[in-house]
Every structure is written in structure tokens, then in C-alpha cells.
Design goal:
It is a single chain. The protein is mainly alpha-helical. It has a single domain, classed as AhpD-like (Up-down Bundle), CATH 1.20.1290.10. It is 81% helix and 0% strand. The chain has 7 helices and no strands. It has helices spanning 4-16, 18-32, 39-52, 56-68, 73-81, 84-87, 89-109. Helix 3 (39-52) runs antiparallel to helix 4. The protein is globular and about 40 Å long.
Length: 110
Amino acid sequence: MENKTELETYQRLRRQHPDYFDAVEALGKAVRNAGPLEQQAIQLVQLGAAAAIRSEGAVHSHVRRALEAGASAEQIHHALLSLTSTIGFPTVVAALSWADDVIGKAKLDG
């Protein structure tokens, strides 16, 4: 299950630094709108980057966003598995575990 503390930390920081978070969110929107990729593809690319830097919170976030953009659990798993030769087996297994935190919660909520 996604760590409640991550969300609480994000919300606290958002309240403390609203201008900073507005700028980060504006940059994210500009990047997403800068080219022809659809939202699902963008989220899977960003999921791969999050896995590569071993960021559990970012993996949670991009899995959630990929699901919202229409990606299936199988597509998310395949995207992560495809990273094995690039980022290594242990990192992929960790990312799959983090992804399943969110996928499992989505199945329970859905």
C-alpha cells in the first residue's frame, strides 16, 4: 500500500512552498504538452526514470498516474521488466514491488 507519510509530506511541503510547487507543476505541464506522446506513454517513461533512480515515492506517483491515463497493470509490469538489462534485476524487483503497492490499492478501491 502506498505510504501515507509520502502523501502527508508532499501536502505539507506544498503548503509551505506554494510558489515552488506551482512552478514545478507548470514545468511538468509544459513538458507533457511539448510533443506528440500521449499521457500513458509519458507516465510509463517517467515511471522508468523513477525506477532507475530508486525513488519509491516517484514510482508510486507514476504508477498511479499511468493507471489514471489508462495503462493496465500488465503494461506497467512490462515497462518495468523491460528495464532489467539497463538498471538491473534488483532495482527492477524493487520497482515492481512499489508498483504493486499502488496496483493492489487500485484493485481494492476499484
